Amino acid sequence: MLAGAFVIGFAGCDNGTPKDHIHVFDDWQIITVPTCVATGSRVKVCTSCGESDPGSIIAIPIDPDAHTYEWEITTWPTTVPDSGVETGVCQNNIAHTGDTRPISATTTGISYTSYLCSLNYDETITDSRLIIAAAQEWGQDITYVSLSSSSAEENTIVTEVLLPPSITQIGGAAFYKYVNLEKITIPENVSSLSANSFQYCTNLKNITLPANLTTIGNATFAYCENLESITIPENVTTLGSSSFQYCTKLESVTFAGTSKLKDIPLNAFARTGIKSITIPAGIETIGNNAFNNCNSLADIVFEPGSLLTSIGTTAFANIAIDTLTLPANLETLGQSVFGNCSNLETVNFAPGGKLKNINQGVFNNTKIQSITIPTSVTHLGSNSGGVGVFSQCGELEEVLFAPGCQVVFIGQGTFYRCESLESITIPASVKELGVMGNGNSMYAGDQPDTAVVDGVFFACSNLREIIFESGSQLETIGTRAFTWLRGSDPPTPAIIEITIPAGVVNVSWRAFYMSCFKTINIPGYPDRAAAIAAGWDSRWDTEFNNNGSFGTTIVNYGF
Domain residues of the chain, as ranges? Predict the structure, then answer.
């Protein structure tokens, strides 16, 4: 038998050798290459089939000459040519250095005035590696880099920017539309990134923000389409509007440490690729559209002890979340905050909450099946227009109000086209259902697909039980509040019975129009109760209004 060879019985080989061939482990294959600080390894392989012998793995000694050098500036240049030094620094061990070479700061297309470095767009910056000088020839430190022209042109040359440690502020639009910029390190002393400073840097994938940073200006990184992740330093107190808007590949956003940030502003992360976000406990407000159209955002976590009081209009609209727990300090939800979150099934409110207002469209077009309105809520929706709170929640089957409910107002269109809703109990605290109005001057049409969305329960086609709690304080039933409660035309059989609370003094235009009520009981007016299987019509309405009314006001065509 050959030296070093042995038989592996019935070993299959990919190169066509017989299953029972004899492996000859005479060749070495490198597994890991040794470096100047770490050993490598190698293994013997069969000369016929290339199969390795796990028992033959041995270490390869450290190679003191196996350095991985990259050029780094070790002496920063001034405005004087060749005043800087660049050294080959081993990436395995920075104590290992190689050759050195002189370097100069970039001067073509740049002007230096006192402490300021101005990037000029009236000249051409020809260096792909843009090196900013650390100081003037006479010793004045350069601390500020900015754009010198108000009309920035696209820069396609620069791929790398090197900033000296002396820089403390990056000015407005400094690197605006550096479309091929791939690499930049922000010095540790930088405390402010001004508006638009990296906007449209479409090839920038990663950037590290320094710990001393306190301000990120408006649209600083907007439209950085290839930016993949960002960590917001702990000391940041100001985050500008649209700061990361349209960073479509931005999947990871982390707030470092105990964040000092109090506000996430307008459009801050709108239309990004964020998949998950943890909102720091110190955040007090989230602005309009802050995470709007983040279509991959499936997880929102509010840190324990959250101070959040307000979430603005459409802040989280059109995202992928399916479960949500809102913090206890939250007081206001703006319009359509979670509108069109088509995967949203479960919404929880933290115990002891302060939420007062759930505005128009907050949960519009979601998959919520059951929800309990917290005790603290006083206003569900509004009469300001727009879609209702639960408008077109086609799977909503159950709406409960927590014990001690304080809701006094349920706004227009709140349950518009909630077609799975079969029963509703309206709390005794409610005084208004929808908006008062009258006639064709305000509303155009009555079909469910064409009407202005104004009726609280408009087109809830399966709603068959409407109960007002004992002691109801209801005073107003607004325009088309219970209109089109039927599933077909001609209408489905009438099985609805409703008793209007005794304190109602206002019934607005077509409040019960085209609905299949079996009986409407009006306290004090038993002779006006009727059973009209085809729905209330204008003839009965005219007769009723000509012969008397209950309370103080019934707008024409209330029924």
Answer: 5-60
